[in-house]
Each structure stands twice: as structure tokens, then as C-alpha cells.
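Work package 3, deliverable 3.1, input record:
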Amino acid sequence: MMRSVAIVITSGALVTEVMWQLYKVYKCSRRKTINTVNGCATQLCTNTEAKIFEVMFFSKDSTLCRTHLGLMKPCGRLNCAVRHLRRIVDYLDSATDTLDICVYFFTFSDLAEAVIRAKKRNVVIRMILDESMATNDTSKLKIFYKEGIQLRSKQLDTLMHHKFVIIDNKILISGSINWTKSAFFGNFENVLVTNESAIVKPFINEFESIWSILGAITTQANSIKT
Ligand SMILES: [Zn+2]
């Protein structure tokens, strides 16, 4: 009798284990991998769309990647700055509806060109920059203005020190990095990219808040209009 009970219990446990393993296989079959960064696959289970959780780091070694920036091809470095730059450009090039840019300082031509490409394919672009951009020689403000991009710059005493971009209200690019060549190729910086709505939505709200606080383009920006 006891032996029969033991066999039944063992059999039940085996069936349960087999079912659990089958369930895990089923769940994994529904996973999508969207990015592999630094050798770490970022996978999440989802029934609708692949999740993006991408982290980029820049360091002193990023200066070494300046040499192959012109080719826009990554090197073998773990944190190749050109590879990171290409990823960000690719995200910008993927915009189909909107591009909300809130960056303290923006002088990097490769990124400015991606923004202008978006404008040319009728993506609605709103840009918030610090007003110091208006007086900087390397500023792309004049180009953005000429392209008809909506611009608002700081009019308050508080520094507009954010560095984030929202693509199509779905993808957030945020981090420490200013959009300057020197920041990409010489600083310790970080960038996070995600489409996790719980993170993206507060940034959308923040953008809308600052956009409404700031007036239309400042006197300084208007003064450089040609
Ligand atoms: Zn490199």
C-alpha cells in the first residue's frame, strides 16, 4: 500500500515537473530579443512588442574611437563610441511621427543630421535646448531654425540640464551625455534606451511640462535668424 502511494506521489511530481518545463519552453518561445549590448542579451517576455532596455557607456577610451568615426563602423571595443552613436542615429532614423528633444547642449553634426532627416520625412519635431545654445558658435540652433523645427530655449534662471529624447512617444533615450562630439568621444557618460511605458510616460509628461513653461523661441534665437 505504502509503495503504491509512493509511486503515485513520485509520478505526480514527475508530471508536474514535465508540465513546468513545457510551460517554460512555451514562455521562452514567446520572447523576443531586441538588443544585445556588451554581450548581455536583453530579453523580456511580451505578448505585444519587444521591450527595449539598452545601456551604453562612454569612457576615456572612447577618444580612441574618434579615428573611425568617419567610417561610422564600430571597432572591437566593448563600448565602441561609434557603435553607440550609430545605435542612437538608428533610433532617430526610426522616428515616423514625433521627435521630442530636450537636451542641454546639442552641437554634434551626426545627430543634427539625423534630426534634419526626420524633419524632411515629415516627423513632427519639438526641441528644447538651453538658451546658451543660442550664443555658441558650434550651435546647430540656426540650422534647426532654418529647417522649421519648433524650438524653445530656456528663459528661466534654472538651468535646463536634461538630456533626453522621446521617439514617437514610445522610445526614450536618456542619460548624462550632451549631444556633442567631445561628450561622445572623451567623457565618462551613460545612455539608457527603453520603450518601457512606465519609464517613458513620466518623461513625456516632463517634456510637455517644460514645453508649456518655456515660451516660443527666445529673443537670442530670433536674433540669429537670417
Ligand atoms: Zn570604436
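The chain has one domain: 53-215.
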